[in-house]
């Protein structure tokens, strides 16, 4: 069941997602060779608490950290550790909060120092695919229009979309219906309505779309060891089209 949100609820979701956006942009400024992924996690939690928000991921299904930090071949749910980022790495930061009972959720992928041309192209394609998907998040369209737009962008660039993780509705829970795959067929799926709020999150691999989860139970890595990138925005569908909630004001 897809829970529709009132304009007042969308304002609250904007506040929560605005906090996430601000914190991600502060974390982005800290990315440099030598910083450890646990430092980023600790800082993300401090920033959330300072804003009166609760980190959304900590304790969710037993996840022990506030931030997911996925480096290079790690797709999503990378666990913070004493690993130091290195020049040429790419790093995905996925962060969420609960504020005033409503959730915010967003992710970005960033090069560490100078990165390879393929890494830059992967990051650019993934970001562009997210925005192409968001463009389809309009009343009267179908869910499959979002999915197909993302998949089309990614595959035209010669990359692949991960099948094993999907986007989701978001509201008073971090994960609500519907599931939002990053692959699909235009014209299929539920009809989109004003008041729907979605977290759209393409995960894009350089090589095969296949992934595996490491023995820690969380870290998803590419099956072939090649690179992966991830961008996520939470957005509201309104009478006037999509409104991105997790963008710095
Ligand atoms: N953005 C991810 C999601 O929407 C983050 C979840 S990590 C978890 O599922 F630890 F909370 F599971
Ligand atoms: Co999400």
Properties at a glance:
binds cobalt (II) ion, globular, four-stranded antiparallel beta sheet, binds 2-amino-4-trifluoromethylsulfanyl-butyric acid, alpha+beta, five-stranded antiparallel beta sheet, 249 residues
Describe this protein's structure:
With 249 residues, the protein is of the alpha+beta class. Helices cover 29% and strands 27% of the residues. The protein has 4 helices and 15 strands. The protein has helices at 7-30, 37-50, 117-135, 143-156, and strands at 54-55, 67-71, 74-76, 90-99, 102-111, 160-161, 167-169, 176-180, 197-200, 203-205, 211-213, 220-222, 228-230, 233-238, 241-244. The strands form 4 sheets. It has a 5-stranded antiparallel beta sheet. Helix 1 packs antiparallel against helix 2. The longest helix has 24 residues, at 7-30. It is globular and about 45 Å long. The two termini are 31 Å apart. The mean pLDDT is 98. Bound molecules: 2-amino-4-trifluoromethylsulfanyl-butyric acid and cobalt (II) ion.
Please state the structural category: alpha+beta
Bound ligands: 2-amino-4-trifluoromethylsulfanyl-butyric acid, cobalt (II) ion
The strand order across the widest sheet is: 8-7-9-14-15
Point out poorly predicted stretches: none
Please tell me what the overall shape is.
globular
Task: Give, in order, the helices and strands.
Answer: HHEEEEEHHEEEEEEEEEE
> What is the count of helical runs?
4
| Proportion of residues in extended strands | 25-35%
> Sheet with the most strands?
5 strands, antiparallel
Radius of gyration: 17 Å
DSSP strand count: 15
Q: Roughly how much helix do the residues carry, as a percent range?
A: 25-40%
Straight-line distance between termini: 31 Å
Q: Average pLDDT, to the nearest integer?
A: 98
